[in-house]
Model the fold of this input.
Amino acid sequence: MFVPKVHFELIPIKNLVSNQEYQRNLCVPHIKKAASDFDLYQVNPVKVSRRNGINYVFDGQHTTEIIAMVSGSRETPVWCMVYDDLCYEEEAGIFANQSEYVRPLTPYDKFIGNIESGNDEELVIKELVESFGLTIDAKPGRNRICAISTIQSIFRKYGYHTLRRVIMLCVATWEGDMHSFSANIMNAITRLIITYGDELNDEIFKERLGMVSLKYLARTAKERNIGALGYAEAMVIEYNGKTKNPKLRLKIDRLHMRVIS
Done:
């Protein structure tokens, strides 16, 4: 009673049908991206309902299209998990509820998995984070970074040295406060670094922003703009303070000249 009545077959893609009404429209950008990063070990069996001699795909239509694109042929066979006793309504029900009891991987789960597999990017980021006495964790806390997708994005877009400077400014300014490692804070600092470069004086940043509570910074950011841009504007306001010297002031309008997602 705990084993589905199925059998496995290698079926050419051309002999599979995926045009049922309950199916999603094919996402071509997803297919192209997955094809460009194709990994044979990530391919799952396609679920097929065989009715009246026709193989109806009810889970895996994108898988078949990705393999067809990579192989260049719809003659290519794929492993199929074939059900012989389903009606159309049962297929639709299985399709609609297939992900309800699946626990998706979190960014932390993926990060740790890549660490264990020896992936260079994650190993470099882990070593960098730990060099500041911090840890990468799934649960927030002092000296812990939970915004894993954020630090990976900064690393990929702007490189090791930018990420290092971001983390250094967070640590030096707010001394490990868990809220200082939020996605908005780190993305805002990244925006400052990319926008102003060497004009951004790290010592001034640490001194002036260190005098401001993160709660106050959050309130100012909310009043200024949405997300990381609001935080970046709030940081520039505090950084400039009452300085009259134009050479030491950062022009806040320049933040809008370059968008960081």
User: Anything to note?
Assistant: DSSP finds eleven helices and seven strands in the chain. The beta strands are 6-12, 16-17, 46-51, 54-59, 77-83, 135-136, 144-145.
